[in-house]
């Protein structure tokens, strides 16, 4: 018994001593800088932060937060990367097509190429035949010139490619369908009937009605039941978008408060945006809806797009009044300046947290009625299955 007590005392003393050692060694010892510069990260590696202290005569200053943006590419590096990128951008633009000399399906006017810093824009000499996203809108073979302009900061350069388009059957069907619907839609609603076009581009058009395939009643009922179960358990695209926006709005007050605090410390908006994005990615991950949208804006800023346009696009992508109002404040501050920006943002912070509270209450009320529609559909389906055989037996 005494031996066990002795072991316990020894173990306790050892753990106490270990705790003291860990406490004394856990802090960071200050390291005196011998250089007067901080090396930037290479392009694409992101910015880095350092917390410094400084001594001026007998005054010691702590908590100097220094954020160093990543190094930008030089003109020579941009030229080299732009030449290197040419084959990759052409391959991306071709999409499913094999060769520039025989384009049969839609092109893909991509805006970025992974691993390269450029933002790409497109011009064609045939805008009536090729859409702004690369969609073929003409049904006959034709040739076109496409100018691909890449920008990075103040750097800009372009490629010029010549393509020969021979539209595939699917493309021609789509073009003819669009033209038919356009011709039909041009007719006035005051007319008693709609005249179907007899020809398109000199080609005769024949029409047939597509018959409705009638299935047995019980197969239809089974389909209704399957749809009801699907509605009760699966999320369609509309629901996903709604949940996506909810996640953005839930995070919005927190982000807004951080931006307001950083602004009070004297940082500029561009650095604040980068800092909040990096902090959010560390805590919530880059796939969190809000920081995913912020990441798009960070990439646009790196590509040389103006700050005002970047913030405006951010609000338009989310398309919620709170975010549009917020980005409008930022854009207005950049264009005209506003001494009241901090005050306005503080008001937005209070309003955002109040709105968040109201949404939480509303979501709680909606949760109880979420499954009512699928349950009603299933009930109706079961009643029909029971009633139909009963009437047939009469």
Structure description:
The protein has helices at residues 2-26, 75-94, 169-185, 217-233, 237-264, 269-284, 289-302, 307-318, 321-336, 341-367, 372-392; strands at 48-56, 59-68, 119-124, 142-152, 155-165, 199-200, 203-204. It is of the alpha+beta class and 394 residues long. The mean pLDDT is 78.
Please outline the helices and strands:
Blueprint: H1 2-26, E1 48-56, E2 59-68, H2 75-94, E3 119-124, E4 142-152, E5 155-165, H3 169-185, E6 199-200, E7 203-204, H4 217-233, H5 237-264, H6 269-284, H7 289-302, H8 307-318, H9 321-336, H10 341-367, H11 372-392
Antiparallel strand pairs: 1-2, 3-4, 4-5, 6-7
The neighbouring-strand order within the major sheet is: 3-4-5
**Distance between termini?**
91 Å
Q: SSE string, helix = H, strand = E?
A: HEEHEEEHEEHHHHHHHH
Structural class by SSE content: alpha+beta
Short account of what is shown:
By secondary structure, the protein is α+β, with helices and mostly antiparallel strands.
Name its key features.
394 residues; alpha+beta; Immunoglobulin-like; three-stranded antiparallel sheet; two-stranded antiparallel sheet; 11 helices; 7 strands; 54% helix
């Amino acid at each position: 018994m005494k031996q066990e007590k002795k072991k316990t005392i020894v173990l306790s003393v050892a753990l106490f001593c270990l705790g003291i050692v860990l406490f004394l060694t856990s802090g960071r010892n200050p390291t005196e800088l011998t250089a007067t510069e901080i090396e930037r990260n290479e392009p694409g590696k992101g910015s880095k932060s350092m917390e410094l202290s400084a001594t001026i005569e007998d005054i010691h200053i702590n908590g100097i937060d220094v954020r160093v943006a990543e190094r930008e590419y030089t003109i020579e590096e941009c030229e080299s990367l732009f030449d290197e990128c040419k084959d990759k951008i052409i391959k991306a633009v071709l999409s499913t097509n094999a060769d520039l000399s025989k384009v049969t399906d839609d092109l893909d006017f991509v805006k970025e190429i992974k691993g390269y810093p450029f933002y790409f824009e497109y011009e064609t000499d045939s805008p009536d035949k090729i859409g702004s996203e690369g969609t073929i809108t003409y049904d006959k073979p034709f040739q076109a010139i496409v100018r691909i302009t890449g920008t990075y900061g103040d750097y800009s350069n372009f490629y010029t490619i010549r393509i020969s388009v021979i539209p595939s059957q699917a493309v021609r069907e789509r073009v003819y369908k669009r033209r038919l619907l356009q011709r039909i839609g041009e007719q006035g609603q005051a007319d008693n009937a709609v005249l179907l076009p007899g020809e398109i581009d000199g080609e005769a058009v024949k029409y047939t009605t597509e018959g409705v395939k009638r299935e047995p009643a019980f197969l239809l009922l089974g389909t209704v039941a399957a749809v009801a179960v699907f509605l009760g358990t699966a999320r369609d695209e509309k629901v996903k978008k709604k949940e996506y926006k909810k996640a953005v709005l839930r995070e919005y007050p927190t982000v807004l408060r951080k931006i307001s605090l950083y602004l009070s410390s004297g940082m500029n908006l561009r650095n604040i945006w980068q800092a909040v994005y990096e902090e959010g990615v560390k805590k919530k991950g880059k796939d969190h809806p809000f920081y995913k949208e912020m990441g798009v804006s960070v990439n646009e800023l790196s590509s040389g797009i103006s700050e005002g346009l970047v913030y405006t696009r951010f609000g338009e992508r989310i398309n919620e009044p709170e975010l549009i109002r917020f980005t409008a404040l930022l854009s207005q501050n950049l264009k005209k300046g506003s001494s009241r920006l901090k005050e306005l943002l503080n008001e937005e912070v209070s309003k955002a947290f109040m709105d968040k509270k109201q949404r939480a209450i509303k979501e709680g009320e909606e949760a109880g009625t979420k499954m009512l529609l699928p349950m009603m559909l299933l009930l109706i389906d079961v009643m029909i299955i029971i009633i139909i055989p009963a009437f047939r037996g009469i």
